[in-house]
Amino acid sequence: TIETYVLLRGRIDVLFYDDRKVLQNRIHLDPKRGLYGLNIPEGQWHTLEVLEDSVLFEVKDGPYMPLQEEDMLR
Predict the structure, then answer these.
(1) Which residues contact 7 (CB under 8 A, 6 or more apart)?
(2) 7 confidence band (pLDDT: 50, 70, 90)
(3) Mean of the pLDDT values across residues 4-16?
(4) Average pLDDT taken over every residue of the chain
(5) Nearest CA to 24 among 73, 66, 61?
(6) Are 55 and 11 in contact (CB under 8 A)?
(7) DSSP state for residue 44 in the 8-state scheme
(8) Higher pLDDT among residues 28 and 60, named by residue
(9) Alpha-carbon distance 54 to 72, whole Å?
(10) For residue 3, what is the enclosing H or E element?
(11) 24-41 per-position pLDDT tens digit
């Protein structure tokens, strides 16, 4: 599903991977520098690297669905 992150406090990096688990991009979020959030397209492999204590607001399309094994890039 599509996800939207808005970082309210702290610093994080959002890392994007391809299907082969190769890092494709890293986006740094830091509200003190005006870098608040981003939209992540459906099907995009990603993870967060928390760089300091942070507060993140996350929005996903649709109802809550627990992660399934196929939802994780291992």
Answers:
(1) 29, 30, 31, 35, 36, 37, 54, 55, 56, 57
(2) very high
(3) 98
(4) 92
(5) 73
(6) no
(7) -
(8) 28
(9) 23
(10) strand 3-9
(11) 999 999 999 999 999 999
pLDDT, position 73 = 75
Strand 45-50 to strand 37-40: parallel, antiparallel, or no bridges (unpaired)?
Answer: unpaired
Task: Specify which residues 45 forms β-bridges with.
Answer: 17
The whole-angstrom distance between residue 25's C-alpha and the CA centroid of its chain comes to 12
Please name which of 56, 42, 43 lies closest in space to residue 13, comparing C-alpha atoms. 56
Q: Where does 1-74 show beta strands of DSSP type E?
A: 3-9, 12-17, 23-29, 37-40, 45-50, 55-60
Q: Give the tokens for residue 38.
A: 């981003």
Helix (H) or strand (E) holding 2: none
CA distance 4 to 39: 4
